[in-house]
Amino acid sequence: MKQFLVFVRKEFYHVFRDKRTLLILFGLPIMQILLFGFALTSEIKNAKIVVVDYSKDASTQKIITKIAASSYFTIEHNILSYDDMDKAFKQGKIKCAIVFPSSFNEDLKHTNKASIQIIADASDPNTARTLTNYLISIISNYQAEINANVQVPYQIQPELRMLYNPELNGSMNFIPGVIALVLMIICTTLTSVSIVKEKELGTMEILLVSPFKPLYVILSKVIPFLALSFIDLIVILLLSNYVLGVPIRGNIFLLLMESTLFIITCLSLGLLISTVTNSQQTAMLISMMGMMLPTILFTGFLFPLENMPLPLQIISNVVPSRWYYYVVKAVMLKGLGLQAVWKQTLILLGMCFFLLTVSFRNFKIRLA
Amino acid sequence: MSAIKIEHITKTYDKGNVTALNDISLEVAKGELFGLIGPDGAGKSSLFRILTTLLIADKGTATVDGFDVVKDYKQIRGCVGYMPGKFSLYQDLTVEENLTFFASLFGTSISENYDLIKDIYVQIEPFKTRRAGKLSGGMKQKLALCCALIHKPTVLFLDEPTTGVDAVSRKEFWEMLKRLKEQQITIMVSTPYMDEANLCERIALIQNGELLSVDTPEKIVASYPQQLYAVKADNMHKILNDVRFYENLQSVYAFGEYLHTTFKNDEAQIESKLTAYLQQKNNSGIEIKKIEPTIEDSFIRLMTEASLIKQH
Amino acid sequence: MEEKAIICKDLTKQFGDFVAVNKISFEVDSGEIFGFLGANGAGKTTAMRMLCGLSFPSSGEATVAGFNVFNQQEKIKRNIGYMSQKFSLYENLSILENIEFFGGIYGLSDRQLKEKGEELVNTLRLQKEAKKMVGELPLGWKQKLAFSVAIIHKPKIVFLDEPTGGVDPITRRQFWDLIYKAADDGITVFVTTHYMDEAEYCNRISIMVDGRIDALDTPTNLKKQFSAETMNDVFYELARGAKRSDN
């Protein structure tokens, strides 16, 4: 046992004496959270919008003028058919459209009630939400103007349609995504590099030619990173709560348990990488490129999985972060309990068990 | 019982395309300081790794301290000390941290076996709070030796401990090994420096995965079959080219400030005849004398013979 | 008077408080084989880097192949060859590809490359291996090949950093034959080594201790000066007093 503790202590020395490791460990998560947090919530200027005006009257003209006057929008085409609008969305030429029905003015005059349709490209959910909010506020601004001197107030009802991503996945959802991404990178990269480094140094030979059990070598490498990743998780949660104002609605204990499971899964992935590589560079490359890219692509926090072609959706099933992301979203943002995420938890548990077994089996007690 | 016993060990890499060791048999007695002498790529490291249970041989068996290197690998791992080639310690740990770590790894402590490493450790103790990465080559090597010794091994394997280390540190290192020998530790050490062979009790000359000879350095040198001559002149490069065309010549090569030569016929006035020949070729300052061969001379002769046998 | 290949006067390199190379002065004649010895960390590598135009001296003067190390580094690089034990050739290129690449860097024409390549492969008797990857060759052959490639553009000076480390005794001597031949062709050879017998093969040697050159002469004179039997003893006598060490 004492051997084991000394080994773990040595690992902590390595971490705290290497600036690069510390930077990855603590600089990366903070940078990611702040970067995503502020990049995704920043103001949008001069978004391209089309106006489809079937009514063409004084009141629609006034609203259009207001939109054109705001710095948020640039009107791309004034009058267009519904089909043309559809095409423009598909080609990505416009972000947003506003449709006035032909009966707009009449409805407003006679029933004091009219509706406007707002359509947004929600494949970029944050932008879509921000843009529609701007439009709604412009419309209610107009509504307030015309209501200034009347007894029966006019009501303009905006109808929202989100194209491509109707549920608006992603608005606040990048936080669980970043947690998954950061844990994945830290656990795989740092574990695999720290083991491979011993191979490069030649110290692995000495460790093997000692009575210390090879299994313990692995364990004592994994435990410090488990602890450090856990600290990282806390830092991210605190940051997102107090700096970005994302609440934790569900049971915090459940969230931490699920995260630990995910961390162990990633650590065993790191172990597996270390058993098949012999140089730090390769280990780094595999962990960074081989793990980061699938995590970004297939977790669903930047690119909605529902819109992906079927083969890619199938591939996404083997990416652990996909399941962890679902769990965090459910527990942290929606406040759901274990009964809502037990399936995902089981899948993660299975993946973790599989990866651990394979990497333990692959770890060689000899050199070749 | 011998400390190390190697029988018909063969090891190949790359699916049998590269032969690292070819049918090696060898015995090292308890408490012996045994040297494995050969250039890079001769197979020294492979042999060390097989004996320290890190590699499994294709053919043959070997025992260390009576334990089989394959079956009883756990026992061997408990009783040997090993310093791999190109070994560097944990550069970011201090001298003391490194030593403490390796001590606990073997389930012991610095104080428990302090006597064994004392002689060596006192030389680096003033720097015990310095990181290993900031130590000099010589000091690193001393620390590595301490780390390999800290658990009082019965057999010590040192793979090229003096490579890349300057002549002064090398000399000190060999003096430390001699003192360790007095503690009854069997030491197997490899080196590409031929001049270090004389510091071992027995040596094996190894080249291309084959043993050229195994014996005491004195006997290997004594078995040199011919008289060796040292030749010198003012212009060494010119004389080397001239001697190469001498009709009675068997071999010639540069050796420090002299040429070392052997002749086909050890005739009576060989020195005066060669002098005459060299003078006729306009060499000045000619000096010829009989000398005793060194290990390097023996190695060169055995290596040449081995490659001749291979060609036929 | 024949032009000097290297003239070095009070050359100094300082890293902060640490004086890696302390006012070294020496001259190397054209066509000379100059041995540059020293204990680990004596400052050999730092000095060699300055002479190769890879780093600026802190003070002092030096010319290499007639060019100033302060402001004519590019010209120096064009007139020297360099080979070290650590980096020599690309292991995953064939012998001929390596020759083409390194020759190409120094601006040899296609015809020259072809001629030189053939000549080189023939002298080293590597005809059969010419298309093999360099990584597959034994260490000794690699080093001989690396040396030949380092002088393929007929530089005025070639710098060799421990070129024979770990090489077998026969190949080591073949390597020195190549060095002698290069010197006969008028190439100045500047070489470091840990093998003291090789020090004897040099025309003159310098021994560095703690950043200074403590001895500089022919091997015979040095042995006389220190009343030592071998160069090993001379070296030991000098380096024993060294205060500092490498890295």
Structure explained in plain terms:
Chain C: InterPro entries: AAA+_ATPase, ABC_transporter-like_ATP-bd, P-loop_NTPase. Chain C: This is ABC transporter ATP-binding protein. Chain C: Residues 6-235 form the ABC transporter domain. The complex is a heterotrimer of chains A (368), B (312) and C (247). With 368 residues, chain A is of the alpha/beta class. Helices cover 66% and strands 10% of the residues of chain A. Chain A folds into two domains: 2-39 and 172-362, no CATH class; 43-163, abc type-2 transporter like domain (abc type-2 transporter like fold, 3-Layer(aba) Sandwich). Chain A has helices at residues 2-17, 19-41, 58-69, 82-90, 104-111, 125-146, 174-201, 203-208, 214-242, 252-276, 280-298, 310-316, 320-333, 338-362, and strands at residues 47-53, 73-77, 96-100, 113-121, 155-163. The radius of gyration of chain A is 27 Å and the shape is elongated. With 312 residues, chain B is α/β, with parallel strands linked by helices. Chain B has two domains: 4-214, Rossmann fold (3-Layer(aba) Sandwich), CATH 3.40.50.300; 228-292, Alpha-Beta Plaits, CATH 3.30.70. Helix content of chain B is 34%, strand content 27%. In chain B, the strands form three sheets. In chain B, strands 6-7-8-3-9-10 form a six-stranded mixed sheet, with helices on both faces. Chain B is globular, with a radius of gyration of 23 Å. Chain B starts with a strand and ends with a helix. Chain C has a domain at 33-42 and 80-239: 3-Layer(aba) Sandwich (Rossmann fold). Chain C has nine helices and ten strands. Chain C has a six-stranded mixed sheet, sandwiched between helices. In chain C, strands 2-1-4-5 form a four-stranded antiparallel sheet, with helices on one face. In chain C, helix 3 (95-105) packs across helix 4 (110-123) and helix 5 (139-150) packs parallel to helix 6 (169-184). Chain C is globular, with a radius of gyration of 18 Å. The chains are: A alpha/beta (368), B alpha/beta (312), C alpha/beta (247). Chain B binds chain C through residues 38-42, 133-139, 163-169, 171, 192-195, 207, 236-237, 240, 253-257, 296, 299-300, 303-304, and chain C through 38-41, 138-140, 165-171, 173, 176, 180, 183-184, 194-197, 200-201, 219-220, 230-232, 235-236, 239-240, 242, 244-247.
